[in-house]
Amino acid sequence: MHSAPVSDGMYLAPTVERAVKILVVGHFGVGKTTLVGGLSEITPLRTEEVMTKPSELVDDLSALPDKTTTTVALDFGRLTLTQQLVLYLFGAPGQDRFKGLWQDLAYGALGALVLADTRALQQSFEVFDRVEEYGLPYAVAVNHFTGSRRYDDEEVREALDLHPETPLVTCDARDVNSSSQALITLVEYLHNRAVQKEAP
Amino acid sequence: MTEPSRRRSGGLVRSYVITGGRARAGTPLDVVTLLLATQNTRPLHHLTVEQRGIVDICRGGALLSLAEVASHLGLPVSVTRVLVVDLIDAGLIATRTAPVVQNAGPELLKEVLDALRARL
């Protein structure tokens, strides 16, 4: 028995022995939380992280003046994939000032799904910089918003300067099947890469 | 009446007070490291409120990731990590998962892929 005020279904199955993570990244308002929430088996959780500015290296928070810290909310969800394996999806903001958070999230992540909005493609540049900086393999999902113009894949690829190998899909973050498909596209790409890497 | 959460109370206690002045955990623990309480029956009265909260939420074989424990307790992940490392050293919390590795192999990715496809 636990004494914490928690609901059923909060805990993982006791058989789970491995956890992996994928980052869902994009600028504010692009639909990260919607996508993560739609796919998650639990109500998406939020944690707030206290961060230091990227240029500061500190070992002791007590020596740190308040004005150099900032907080960022981190949303995440969970999908139990098999009896042994669970996948966590972390929604991560791409802004430069969240670098400290990225180090922690990016390490060991399978890859990243970059969410983009055709009405604000230039806002995604910072996100791509961050993903590439941490060497995360990624796929791009254009979240289609009602009323926004549909562009050809080629137009989007050119505007975002995507590598020919980088998968590009259009999705509706409110639709679970559509979000699942985007995630599958990413993992297919990750799997193919890993197979090629192992080939002699 | 339920106890107000730390988040709603506006974080009146500074992070460095909760962790006793330390900002970094000695052992790197990933955000998806799975945690559970050990069978250790040692009394918990010497623990801080936050540490007791962690042990309580991980009791009875209940399995949660570090990120989930942090979120349920309304603490930043970085703070929770420091506290959990202390609890592991004290033999009160154990980790279930192997340490996260960079560059997952094709077998693991195939397992993830098959499971995602099966959900559609």
UniProtKB/TrEMBL annotation, chain A:
<keyword id="KW-0547">Nucleotide-binding</keyword>
<dbReference type="Pfam" id="PF03029">
    <property type="entry name" value="ATP_bind_1"/>
</dbReference>
<keyword id="KW-0342">GTP-binding</keyword>
<dbReference type="GO" id="GO:0016787">
    <property type="term" value="F:hydrolase activity"/>
</dbReference>
<dbReference type="InterPro" id="IPR052705">
    <property type="entry name" value="Gliding_Motility_GTPase"/>
</dbReference>
<protein>
    <submittedName>
        <fullName>ATP/GTP-binding protein</fullName>
    </submittedName>
</protein>
<dbReference type="GO" id="GO:0005525">
    <property type="term" value="F:GTP binding"/>
</dbReference>
<dbReference type="InterPro" id="IPR004130">
    <property type="entry name" value="Gpn"/>
</dbReference>
<dbReference type="InterPro" id="IPR027417">
    <property type="entry name" value="P-loop_NTPase"/>
</dbReference>
<keyword id="KW-0378">Hydrolase</keyword>
<comment type="similarity">
    <text>Belongs to the GPN-loop GTPase family.</text>
</comment>
UniProtKB/TrEMBL annotation, chain B:
<protein>
    <submittedName>
        <fullName>DUF742 domain-containing protein</fullName>
    </submittedName>
</protein>
<dbReference type="InterPro" id="IPR007995">
    <property type="entry name" value="DUF742"/>
</dbReference>
<dbReference type="Pfam" id="PF05331">
    <property type="entry name" value="DUF742"/>
</dbReference>
